[in-house]
Specification:
Layout lengths: L1 H13 L7 H8 L3 H12 L3 H19 L4 H7 L5 H12 L3 H7 L22 E7 L2 E11 L7 H8 L3 H8 L10 E5 L10 E9 L9 E5 L2 E11 L2 H17 L2 E3 L4 E7 L5 E12 L8
Antiparallel strand pairs: 1-6, 2-4, 2-5, 3-4, 3-8, 6-9, 7-9, 8-9
Helix pairs in contact: 1-2, 4-6, 4-7, 5-6
Length: 293
Amino acid sequence: MLEKLNQAMDHIEEHLEDTVDVAELARIAATSEYHLRRMFSALAGVPLSEYVRRRRLTLAGAEVLSGRDTLLEIAVRYGYGSGEAFARAFRAMHGIGPGEARRTGAVLGSQPRMSFRLTVEGNGDMRYRIADRPAFQVVGFKARVALVHSGPNQSIIDFVRGIDKAALGRLAKLADQEPAGVVSVCDDLDPGRAEGTELDYYQGVITSAGAPGGTTALPVPPGTWAVFTTSGPAPQAIQELWRDVFTQWFPSNPYRSRPGPEILRTVLSEDGSQADAELWLPVEPSGKLGWHS
């Protein structure tokens, strides 16, 4: 339950002047480190490590303005090995160095303490199924791109536009497993999902055939997948599906995310205004160690 996540948030507050151990946070939240990072990023909109950093700099900012301790004492208290490192981090968050902030009494930024609660927002059932799959492979054209949180990812758009249509058509004929047809695959993502971190992006197919020249094969081990489907306006329906999976489905079902590629199959209407989409996410049963005990 979200109560356990909030207990982990309490633990963070108690250790902002100490070491925030993600393994201990995962134990408190009764889940895996991977799923904790993934869920936190989805629910909070910021990676866990970034939240901890900003909370520390918020408290450090108040102490800088109070003038009681030296800047170096404050830096060491919040985990910075030197005054220079502290000053760089302080300026990145507050827009001003700690020395100048103390001299001028500047207005500083603040990261509020977070807590989570379940809000019922869904106005319909989510359509999903659970699939246990043997090992398979993705074969496709690959690019290394940066993660973009909102709006179009221009790197992916440019990459897909640059793929030879005839070559992609020949590749599509090799698809012989579900999800059928040409799919988009994201792999090697940072669990925290920090904007700007890199990932492997594939435009390809699921196939037992060998990889044609110019393509790359991604072996995928056996495992369990949660498969979600949606239909609606493009791209809103797909964006809302991603949102609902992590803010509604995971907190309400006995599964947690696990490392692995994330697969999306999209079929657009002729005018591109409507989309039918199928999203495959690697999961594992949480059992008694889920978010629901």
